Amino acid sequence: MEEPIYGGIEAGGTKFICAVGNADGRLIEKLRFPTEDPEKTIEKAVNFFRPFYLNNGLERIGVGSFGPIDSDINSGTYGNITSTPKPGWQNVDLVGLLRSRLEVDIVFDTDVNAAALSESLWGASRSLDPSLYITVGTGIGGGYIRDGRILKGMTNPEMGHISIPHDRSKDPFIGACSYHGDCFEGLASGRSIQERLGVPAERVEQDHPFWELEIDYIGHAIANFVLTLSPKIIILGGGVMKKGSLFVGIRIKVKKILNQYVQTNEIIDNIDTYIVPPFLGDNSGVLGSIALAIPG
After folding, report:
1. How many domains does one find in the chain?
2. Rounded to whole angstroms, how far apart are CA atoms 216 and 162?
């Protein structure tokens, strides 16, 4: 008997990644394509999965989506992308559209919750519980794993929308968040960098003075999460975090902000292994989506 296979969709604001894999986190096949309007994007995803659905006994698909989303299975709008600022994607029933074309069970959560889950199963936070995953990309979000489970509450935690200090004399930028202006996402996301500087983050020179602001904003947010969630490891993913100097600066900034108030080895002596990039690299999100689909 062949081993069961599971599907995963990392539904991002700029790209979709579809994949199939097994229960051990081994990828079998993967496809990446730009996020267009819902009809075109969903059709490409369906075309990727259809051969596995028809011929290979695809068991279930996990979807880790950009948000905000409704992941409450008891809600009438479960499976919807809700009040997203992404044009054309507000109130899209992503799960319903996929189910109607593939007739397969689908598990739905945020993209960052999925990434947090995969890192806890197979990556940097394996055996370290609780753990926190923050993605700094087009938007900013956070996923928290406690006792092996994704933290849920009244809604999904929206860690990208916390308030952080904003000195307008140093940074007069009003912020890019359409809801809160200068929240964490509004000041430090890839979208905010594009709006502030006129170029995407990957094209901003390594020695540009903006990166000191970015380090300050991320450092303040991380210090807040250390104080409130007390994770045993913090993983920083997303496209913006691929700038090589950010990790060193953020670690220094977090220690400075905490000012020896948190007296743990992780902060005082081992912060280089406490604030880390994802072990699974660019596969964290899609592997996490597959993990959502695996029973148990």
Report:
1. 2
2. 14
The pTM score is: 0.94
Say if 256 falls within a structural domain.
Answer: yes
The whole-number pLDDT of residue 1 equals 44
Contact between residue 284 and residue 25 where contact means Cβ atoms under 8 Å apart: no
Residue pLDDT, tens place only, 26-83: 999 999 999 999 999 999 999 999 998 767 678 899 999 998 899 999 999 999 999 8
In contact, 13 and 295? CB cutoff 8 Å: no
| CA torsion through residues 275, 276, 282, 284, sign | negative
Domain for residue 118, yes or no? Answer: no
CATH code: domain of residue 272:
3.30.420.40
- What stretches of the chain show up as alpha helix (H) in DSSP? 38-55, 94-102, 111-122, 184-188, 190-197, 210-229, 246-258, 265-268, 284-293
User: Residue 17: what are its φ and ψ, rounded to 5°?
Assistant: -125, 120
- Can you say how many angstroms the Cα of residue 139 is from the centroid of all Cα atoms in its chain? 9
CA 262/CA 266 separation, integer angstroms: 9
**d(Cα 223, Cα 255) in Å, to the nearest integer?**
8
- What is the torsional sign of CA 223, 226, 229, 231? positive
Q: Are residues 93 and 138 in the same domain?
A: no
User: What is the residue whose two structure tokens read 């902060």?
Assistant: 267
Looking at the fold, whether 136 and 100 belong to one and the same domain comes out as no
pLDDT tens for residues 181-235? 999 999 999 999 999 999 999 999 999 999 999 999 999 999 999 999 999 999 9
